[in-house]
Structures are given as C-alpha cells and as structure tokens.
Automatic annotation (TrEMBL), chain A:
Domain named EF-hand: residues: 14-49, 116-151
Pfam families for this protein: EF-hand_7
Single GO MF descriptor: calcium ion binding
UniProt-listed InterPro entries: EF-hand-dom_pair (IPR011992), EF_hand_dom (IPR002048)
Designated gene of the protein: EFCAB2
Species, as recorded: Oncorhynchus tshawytscha
Protein name, entry field: EF-hand domain-containing protein
Top-rank taxon, per record: Eukaryota
From TrEMBL, chain B:
Taxonomy, superkingdom: Eukaryota
PANTHER family: SERINE/THREONINE-PROTEIN PHOSPHATASE 5-RELATED, SERINE_THREONINE-PROTEIN PHOSPHATASE WITH EF-HANDS 2
InterPro entries reported in the protein's UniProt record: Calcineurin-like_PHP (IPR004843), EF-hand-dom_pair (IPR011992), EF_Hand_1_Ca_BS (IPR018247), EF_hand_dom (IPR002048), Metallo-depent_PP-like (IPR029052), PPP_dom (IPR013235), PPP_phosphatase (IPR051134), Ser/Thr-Pase_EF-hand_contain (IPR012008)
EC annotation from Swiss-Prot or TrEMBL: 3.1.3.16
Originating species: Oncorhynchus tshawytscha
Name the UniProt record assigns to this protein: Serine/threonine-protein phosphatase
Keywords attached to this entry: Calcium, Hydrolase, Magnesium, Manganese, Metal-binding, Protein phosphatase, Repeat
CDD domains, alphabetized: EFh (cd00051), IQCD (cd23767)
Family from the record: Belongs to the PPP phosphatase family.
Gene Ontology MF annotations: calcium ion binding; Hsp90 protein binding; iron ion binding; manganese ion binding; protein serine/threonine phosphatase activity
Amino acid sequence: MAEDKESAEAIVSEVHKKIRAAFDVFDHEFNKTVDVREIGTIIRSLGCFPNEGELHDVIAERLTVNRAYVHEHREDNNGTYLTKQIEEEEPTGYIRFEKFLPTMTKVLMERKFRPIPEDLMLQAFEVLDKQKKGHLELEELTKYMTQEGEPFTQEEMEEMLSAAMDPDKNLIFYKDFVSMMTVDDPR
Amino acid sequence: MGCGFAKSDKLKKPMRAALLIQRWYRQYVARLEMRRRCTWNIFQSIEYAGEQDQIKVGQQTHIPSIAGKLHIHMTPCDSFRNLISHIFRENNICRNVDWERYFCYKSIEVPKLYSGPHLSFPITCSNAAELVEAFKNKQQLHSRYVLQLLGETWRLLRILPNISQISTCHSKEITICGDLHGHLEDLLLVFYKNGLPSSEKPYVFNGDFVDRGKDSLEILLILFSFLLVYPNDVHLNRGNHEDHIVNLRYGFTKEVLGKYRLHGKKILKLLQKIFSWLPLATVIDNKVLVLHGGISDTTDLHLISRVDRHKTSVTPWLTLTLTQTLENMLWSDPMPQDGCVPNEVRGGGCYWGPDVTEEVLQRHNLTLLIRSHECKQEGYEFCHNRRVLTIFSASNYYEVGSNRGAYIRMGPDLVPHFIQYQANRATRALTLRQSVGRTERSALRALREKLFAHKSDLISSFQEYDPENTGLISLGHWACAMEAVLRLGLPWRVLRTQLVGDTLDGMLDYHLWFRELAITEPNTELSNASLLETMYKHHSNLETIFRIIDTDNSGLISFEEFRQTWKLLSSHLQTEISDEAISDLAVSIDFNKDGSIDINEFMEAFRLVGGDLLQNEGDPH
C-alpha cells in the first residue's frame, strides 16, 4: 500500500513538473506569472483538447478571480469603528502559477478534454462533405468554419487554408490533411 | 412530423462536426505556438550568452582589469603585457589632421573597368538614390568612394551634439527604424514602403546597423550618404554594435576585410572613429526620447549632453560612473519589476523597471521612450504601461520566419503608428507550420552544437546522477544536468521530445544519446581530443582574441602570439595546457608551414557541416 501511495505521489509529481515546464515557457519575466491570454495555449500544449467555451469556463471559474480582503473602517454615530470585509478582485491579465497548478493538475489527472482520434476527425470532415466527393471546396469549408460552431476568425481561417488547401484547385483534400496533422505530433 | 425531428438532427450534425474540427485545429495551433515560443527562447538565450562571453573576453584583455578580474596562475611575461597594452593604447599623439592624412582617398585610383556607382562630393540626393539602386543590384562601391564618403561623414559627425533635438512642426511625420543588423533587404523594403529620406520625410535610425547580417557596410554607406545630403532630417543613434570590439566577434570586421582586401584596415579604422562620434540619442518635440538600449536610475540627459562622447568608451568593461551611464544607454533592457539591477544576461548595462521609467520621464518632462536592442516577434512591443516602446526592424532575425520587422511613423500628435513587414517573399508563402518547423530546426541545430561543445561537462554531470555507472539516468535528472551545465534557462522538459529519442522506461542511455546527436566531428588532424574539445567550446572567444592580437589586420599571427593567446585563454579557463602541447598544436596548425598561423584557416577547422550558426554571419541558408 505504501508503494501505491509512493507511485501515486510520483505520478502527481511528474504531472506537476510537466505543468511547470509548459508554464515556464510563457513566463517571460521569470516571476511565476503568465498573461491570461496564453493560458489556452499552455493547456492545449499539455495535450488537452478543450473547445473555446470549455477554456473560457476554466479560466473564468477557476483562475481569474483572486479574492483579497480589504477592511473598510467607518465610524458610526457613536464613534465606534465598524469594519467590513470587502472582497476585491485583483486586476486580471496575469495568472499566477500557484493558482494554475492545482487547476491544471486536476484537468490532467481527470483526463478532461481528451484528444480526438484521427478516425473521428475524418468522420467530421465527411459529414461536411455532403456529396461524398472526398474533398471540400474552399467556400464550403470556409462557410462551415466561419459560421458554425465556435467560428474561426479570418486569420484562423486563412492559416488553416494555407495548410490544408491545394492552391491550384482551391480544394481541401481532408484525408491527407488529417493524416499530415496527426503525423506532425511530436509526442 | 418525423422528418422535422430528423431534419433538426441532420442540422445538428454539421455544427457538431464543425465544432470538432475547430477544436482539433486550435489545439494544433497551440502546440505550434508552444514550439515557436521555445525556439525563440533558444535563440535568445544563445544570443545573450554569446554577448556575455564577448564582454568577458574584453574584460580579460583590458590591462587595468587583468589583475583584478583574472586569476592568473602564471605571470604574463613583459612582452605579452606590452603586446596587449599596445593594442589598446589610444594614440593621442595623432591629431585629427594626421588621421585625415592617413585616411586620404586621393591617391586611390578608380580603374576604367569599374562598373559600380561613382560618387561626387558634395553628395546629392540623386547620388544617394543611385547608391541604393546599386546595392540593390549587388554592386560594390569602390574603396576610394568609400573612404571619401566616410571621411565626409566623420567630419559632419564631429559637429553634431550628443543628443539631437528634432520637431514635427510643419506637420512632418517622422519615421523611426530599429535594429537593422546588416539586413539590407529590410532597409530596402522600408524605403520601398515608406520612401527615401528627404526633408519631407525625416528618419531616425536607432542603432545596431551592423553585425550578423552580410550587408552591414552597404547599410552604413546608404545611411551616411543620406545623412550627408539631409543632415537636419536624418538622425543616427549609436547602438551597442557600433563598437569595433563587438564587431570583431559578430561579423562586421570580417565582412569589411573580405569585401575590401586592400583598404579594409583603413576603412575599419575610420569606422572606429565614426562610431565613437555617433550621437547617442534623439529627442522629438521635447517629449519623446529615442535611443538604442535604454535608461537607468542615473540617466541625466543634461549631463549626458555635455560629455565628450568620442573619448568615452561604451564597451562594458570600463566601470567609471560616467561611462556606466553611457553604457546603459546602449545596453540596457526593460524589466517588469521595479528597480534597477545590473544586466547579468548581457553582461552590460542594466535592467530597469517601470518606476525608473516614470521617474526619468517625469524628471525630463517626457512622455515616451522609444528604444530598440531586443528582437520582438511582431517587430515592436510596448511595456511599462505603454511608456516604453521597443522597435526592431530586422525581420527574420533568428531565422527565416522567426519574426517581422517594423518601423514607426509619428506625427505632431506623437502617437506612434506601426508598419510591419517581413523580407523574403518565401516567408510569406510559408504556412505557420512550415515557418515554425524551419526556425525550430535551425534553433535545434544551434542547440545541438552547444551540446557537443560541452560534452565532457555534460557527461560528468550525468554521471553524478548515476553513481552506480549504469549508463542510464532519469529524464528529470537529464533536465537538471542540462541546465546546470549549459545555464541557458531553457525549458528542457518541453524540449526533451526534440532532443531525446527513445528511452527505456523513462531512463536515458546518455552515452548512446550523444552518439546519436549525429554531429559531424570537426575535421582536423589534431590528436589531442580534450584540447580539441576545449578549443571548440571556446572557438568564438579564440577567434575574437586572435583578431584583437592581429593588430595590423593581416589575418596572420606569429607562433609566439598564438602561444600567448592560448596561455591567456587557458588561465581564464583555469585549465592546464602544457607549453609542449601548445607548440605541437601550433606546428600542426601551420598549414602553410611558413611559421605563421592564418586565422581563417585555423577557424576553418571548426566549421561544422550544416553552416556557421555560431558565427552568426547572416542567413544560414
């Protein structure tokens, strides 16, 4: 049993180190904080596949609200001091590592936001390819990506097209695209 | 109706499919961003570690510091001391008039066969424009014109103040460019997008025109020619690379000697004077301060404007208070924490915080500090509550695709507008994935070379974690050892996947790993393996010292000078190298067997297959 506890501790310790390493990459000033806008990148780089909504929830619910207690002193008519605790939000914009670590550990240990297997990806593209042509037209894909789900920005769309589209034919051969992206994974 | 249900089900499916694709793709982009960020960190840490080495070399050879800073095991002999003091002795006996005679171009004839541009003086704006065209077409300016142009520049700079005051009256917009580092393509791109300098189009160039890129001299000649034509509308601020000592290491000296074999030495000497006379800062409308590096808590512009700038070295090993202030102007970097601390990363200047910015700006009644000195991915970046702005104009600085360049346009409202660009059409056609991949491969190559150079130290460090000599260590220990030896502050665990292949149950066979790093060993006939490794590790320093010693820039040093160089370096490294080993080495390196050593031939031995990344001489492709 002691062994199990040790190995559990070892696992958690490894997870902590992984999280720390990813966090450090974005900790430009070596002061254990990162810009909140980089949190999504960090979480994803640790192998998680949240969608934008889920990401927003993690950040909003668990990371950004830092409570500080301030005592407000007021005199009442009898000259006695009244104190009141006010919860104040720390300025947002930066996430501290102490806050990030437990949240992220939980995410990893609970295996939230699991990766999407390659065949599921293929199926998703096939759903959009109504006529079963084996490829998607530029306008088709653009319409879906920029109007449905959690729409891409123009920049995201352009970047995806530059990677996915055959520039001569303006077609996206999604089977190749999916394999290429999956092979790219260095892990 | 039934089909209503089915229809809504069908409608849902594309939305869910789209969601899935978006989720998957965004994950991919995040992973790329992580890799890009790591790559950036690699380049930056190697760059700054290199600069720090450079400064340490300077510290070694400056006579007053030797006793204090070096722990010399042997007393350098008198002849060596004389040699070193000769190199650094400022020749105050020569007056400007004597120098002008030395730099005279008049005896140099331009042959009829010369097809490059001809300059006439006083130089006109069409001359300057012609020069730009000529360089665009890869022509070279004849040394006569080079010396003439530089001579005129030197004369002009001597009458300019330390701090230029300019104004945006008459609704003039001012253009401000940051580091160019010999990237002629970027300067040409800026001129193409923004127009050539003129009285309607004033420019400020904020230092670091030279080193690293391969067209540093051409950039200088263009900037100087516009300076001569429009002295009130073109402003040059000195950067930390406008320094002949720094140039010895970072490529500019080599570039000039390579392009001008006959007159290169003279040109370099004249440039040394010109650099010392470059103004230090520009102030726009009494509100915006523009200088290359930054400030410190002791920055006092009134004091600075009264200094004899050409007599004051800005190279970071003179520690007099006044020169420290000037050094700070060219070497410092901003930091997010309050305060002002020495800049340990670069080894020169300081790190200054937002409180210092506020105090200095308020004290001088200024609203904005514009500086350069640090490469930024988007070409520019604000910090310190938007009171400090970094502008960097060399795109693809670390590698093709690594970053954009940018310049500022600013009108009488003093609000900066940014124009970004990336030279090299190929870059724009690269996808994010390809440009990250390419930059990453380049960074990893540079990193692997460093690993090779520190092989014995790394192996010893690994062995400390492997007391039973199994040949295996855990990945955690691997990461610790890597950082302890290399001190680059890199995220080793994240980089692990790129550097380490297979592991057995999370344990790394480190001997095997080194063999698999697959770097071709340098090609030499030298037999002493540990000596070779030491030399390789310090070859940049070695080359710098050689060039310092080669006072007449002939490219050759004598056996005695070679021996003395080794002694100096080995004392600094605190390694024991016997006289005999050095003599044997000298003899074996004398490839020509003529009793002297050709520096270039010697350094050839350390060129690895795959490029001169550690030399940083420009586009490695």
